[in-house]
Amino acid sequence: MGGKLLLATNNHDKVREYRSLLVGLPYDLVTPSDVGITTRVEEVGKSLEENARLKATVLAGQSRLVALADDSGLEVDALGGEPGPLSARYAGEGASDSQRIDYLLSRLEAVPQGKRTARFRCVIAIATPGGKVETVSGERSGIIAFEPRGEGGFGYDPIFYLPELDKTMAELSPEVKNRVSHRGEAARKARQVLERLIV
Ligand code: ITT
């Protein structure tokens, strides 16, 4: 039996996706608030990988549980890879998803369809209380739409258009998003790491 696995995130949308992506593993998934942890780890790293490692290591140490952290972001080519690791704070601390979308669209106003390529990246770090850390990652390419569409998902999903499916990520069902998303790819690799940790 694997015991408890701490989902080291304060983002409820990520928790919802991981509950489905990690289904069937012999772990009881818990959140920081479930185990009385209220600290927010400052994301001081320069890369998604650094920040994911930091969040997983700190929370595994505090909880004495295996911890899985996710640092993810959107890289827009016309903006030199921005917002990247700053995706959550792009329109300032405390901004809403729709304010971040508006801000990003305003930065891309003059950029034509053919130059709006982007990718979502997700890095997952899994840390043990003993201090071991492993990382895995996933990515999904797409195009930044001119206006938001769809009600599903979260974050930048309504403006992330997938030409192969002719839909934005927010127009996909949760099952299809998990199949094609950056987080889905990373979580399938994380599953293998977690299976190895079970003794
Ligand atoms: P934790 O650090 O507590 O996990 P957070 O929301 O601060 O939560 P990140 O630092 O990883 O998470 O920021 C990721 C941001 O990137 C998030 O706020 C979204 O705006 C965006 N993002 C990540 N995954 C996404 C997805 O699947 N779809 C749309 N936007 C996503």
Give the neighbour order of strands across the main sheet: 2-1-3-4-5-6-7
The percentage of residues in β strands lies in 15-25%
State mean pLDDT (0 to 100 scale).
95
Structural class determined from secondary elements: alpha/beta
Which second-level CATH architecture applies?
Alpha-Beta Complex
Q: Helical region count?
A: 5
CATH class identity:
Alpha Beta
Catalogue the ligands: inosine 5'-triphosphate
Q: How many structural units, i.e. domains?
A: 1
Secondary structure: helix percent: 25-40%
How many E strands? 7
| Main beta sheet strand tally, sense and closure | 7 strands, mixed
What characteristic shape results from the CA principal axes? Answer: globular
**Helix-strand pattern:** EHEHEHEEEEHH
The CATH topology corresponds to: Maf protein
Low-confidence residue ranges: none
Radius of gyration: 17 Å
Give the CA-CA distance, first to last residue: 7 Å
Provide the fold topology.
Layout: E1 4-7, H1 12-21, E2 28-30, H2 48-63, E3 66-76, H3 97-107, E4 117-127, E5 133-144, E6 160-162, E7 167-168, H4 174-180, H5 182-197
Parallel strand pairs: 1-2, 1-3
Antiparallel strand pairs: 3-4, 4-5, 5-6, 6-7
Helix pairs in contact: 4-5
The structure holds inosine 5'-triphosphate.
Inosine 5'-triphosphate binds at residues 9-11, 14, 43, 70-73, 87-88, 100, 120, 153-157, 169, 181, 183.
